[in-house]
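Dear colleague,

Thank you for sharing your sequence with our group. We've completed the structure prediction you requested, and as agreed, I am returning the results in plain text so they can be pasted directly into your records. Please verify that the sequence below matches your submission; if there's any discrepancy, let me know and we will rerun it promptly.
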Amino acid sequence: MQHWIFGYGSLIWRVDFPYHEREKAAIVGWSRRFWQGSHDHRGTPDAPGRVLTLIPEHDARCVGMAYLVDEDVFEHLDHREKNGYERVDVHIRLAGRDVPGVTYIGAEGNFAYLGPAPLADIAAQIIRSQGPSGHNIDYLLELDSALATLGVTEPHVRSLVELARG
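Please find the predicted structure tokens below.
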């Protein structure tokens, strides 16, 4: 069986799984925020980095990439997204059609959830954090570049990039 997966963060540019189709996509009612802690990729348990999650926001539109994958890909993705993320059903808007799919969200209340903070504090945490997958600032800059390639300007992300670059 095949499923659509929506990627809004590193799944846009770090595609380490097989897929049948890949398309620019969007989901409605969700916004990206650097409110999820990363203890296993961009930080450590003692000094977590900050990575993306989605928060519900009325009339928001989050643009990313959708992938049509075989069911066995979930074993890999569930491990990759294990740090507080859970699979959530979403409606994915592709060019000319909507499809059912899933995305990974670090919901409020999970063990790695850091929640909102002043943007300057989030940027400072991103600047100083690093983990097994590299420096947290690289995650932010890769995201910004990937969004630019998609033609997306994301105010939350752009503000953090500007603060991080000083």
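Summary note from our side: Residues 14 and 142 are 9 Å apart (CA to CA).

Kind regards,
the structure core
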